[in-house]
Structure formats: structure tokens, C-alpha cells
Design goal:
Layout lengths: L1 H14 L4 H22 L11 H7 L4 H15 L2 H6 L1 H11 L13 E8 L7 H9 L5 E5 L5 H9 L5 E5 L2 E5 L3 E6 L14 E8 L2 E9 L4 E3 L2 E3 L1 H15 L6 E6 L10 H4 L23 E6 L1 E8 L10 E7 L1
Parallel strand pairs: 1-2, 7-10
Antiparallel strand pairs: 1-13, 2-4, 3-4, 5-6, 6-7, 8-9, 10-11, 12-13
Amino acid sequence: MAERAGNGAVAAETSVVPGVGKRRRGWVLAGLAVVLGGVLGFHRLVPNRPGRLGSLIESFLPWGGALVIILLVVALVRRSAVALVALLLPVGVWVDTFGGLLLPGEEGGGRELVVVQHNVSDENRDPAGTARALADSGADLVALEELVDPQLAAYEKALAADYPHHVVRGTVGLWSKHPLSGDQVVDIKPRSIEKGWSRGLRAVVRSPYGDVAAYVAHLPSVRVGVGGLASQRRDESAALLGRAIADESVEPVILLGDLNGVVEDRGLRPLTSQLAFAESGFAFSFPAAFPLARIDQVMARSAAVGHIRTLPATGSDHLPVAARVALE
């Protein structure tokens, strides 16, 4: 009998502290919110070894907003005030970092070029249709990557009427409504890749507003595996391209390309440290079926890249992106 009473007392004691589990879960949610805010705000402090963890996190940084929403829903269901207060941190950091991209772009001015960037895919089954869709954008410049035979001839034929000037080097090309000169290969080949790999070009656009140095580049692909992010070749290629652009004597400079990285990725720092990028618009471009990130980029120096947007899908696994570049 005494033993039963003792057990009953323990049960009674437990029952008089309702909500302890809920409060603990609230503090767990609050802790997760603080960690998420820290990662969003101080991602540069995340080490890149092993597995280029920092670059991997930065590749999907905008999606931190989705994690904030999930935590917010859970906090509301749990009715946790402490978690809701803690969520103010990641919300504030995300809005400060990415909120501007949600704003509409400013109206176009006089001294600007409309540009389109598109990795057309070497497996594109409708190059002519893709070319017509890009021409319908009315862009001044169209940069294409993964140009291979026999599709190249189809692009040249379909774009000829709207873009009388073009240059192709290796597997990248630039089509322009304005005359081009001084075109040359830009060597961005990593040392570990065999000869014959050519994915960079430079040309001077004789625009109505003066000369513009235009670069088109396709940096090496990255892969995500059990060992993390394999981006060594991409990073090396970005450094080579950064050096070439740093030595460029013509201003302004516009870079168009599939850089296989987002602008937050530290692997692209040789480029983002000296070039401006879009002020508004997310324009997630890859993969086309369910875009997760914008790895197709428009950057500029001595010019401002305005609102960037995606264009309708083509026969590629990338979406085209378009932007207005205001020249200084």
C-alpha cells in the first residue's frame, strides 16, 4: 500500500508541472532560429574545409527564407512566444540581405543595354526555336554557352536577321545588334583540364553610347556529393577570369555567363569583388524544370545591372535571364 501511495505521489508531482515539454520545445525552436540567423548573417565565417562547406551553404542561402517560414509555422502551432521573438533575428537578416531583390526594378533610362544570357545546352533539340525566343526579347546583346556542332549553324541562321554581328570562340558566343571588334579568346582553362577546352571570349561592343568590353564565360561545373561541393576547377577558372577582367582597359565592362555559382558563393569572389550584379530580382535559372539557384549571371563594372528576370523556358536545362545594364 505504501509503495502504491509513493508511486501515486510521483505521478501527482509530475502532473503539477504541465507545459514543461512545450517550453523546452520553444527554447529548441528559439535556438534553431538563432543558429539560422547566424548562418545567414555570418556565412562568410563558415569554413570552406572540409568539402567546401561554406560555398555549399552560400549556394542555397536565399532558401534560408523557406526555413524561417517553417520555423514560424511550428512556433505558431506550439504557441511559443520565445521562439517567435527569436525568429525576428533570421527574418531581419534575410530581409536585409535579400529583401531588395523582391522590389521591382527601376524604369529604364537612356544610356542602357538590354542583355540576355543563356546556356542553351549541348543537348538542345530545338536550337532554332530557342534562338527565335531569345531574339523576341529584343536584347542588344545575347550571350550563349554550350554551342556545339551541328546546333551552332542553327543559332547563326536564326539570329542573323536580328543580330548581324556575332563572334564564337570555342563553345561560347556573343550576338550583337551593334558592331563588334577586338574579339579574342579568354583563357580560363584550369590546369587539370585537357587542351582544347575553350569557354571564354572577349569583344568590344561599339554601342551607341561608346565602347563596351563584353565578356562571355562558362565556368566548369560543380558537383554535390558525399564529400561536399566539388568546385576546385570552377574556383580556379573564376580566378583566371577575374585577372583578365581586372586587366581590361576598356570601360564599361559587362560579363555574361554560366558561372556555375551564385553571387553569394565565395568561389566567385574574384568576380563579385570587382563587378556589380543585379539590384533586384531572384531569377533562379537552374534547373529549368524546378529552378533552385541563379547560376547564369550578368555582372558589370562602370555600369549598373538593374532588375534581372528569367525568360520562358527553351529546349535547355537552364532558363534564359535578361537584364538592363545602365552605363555610367
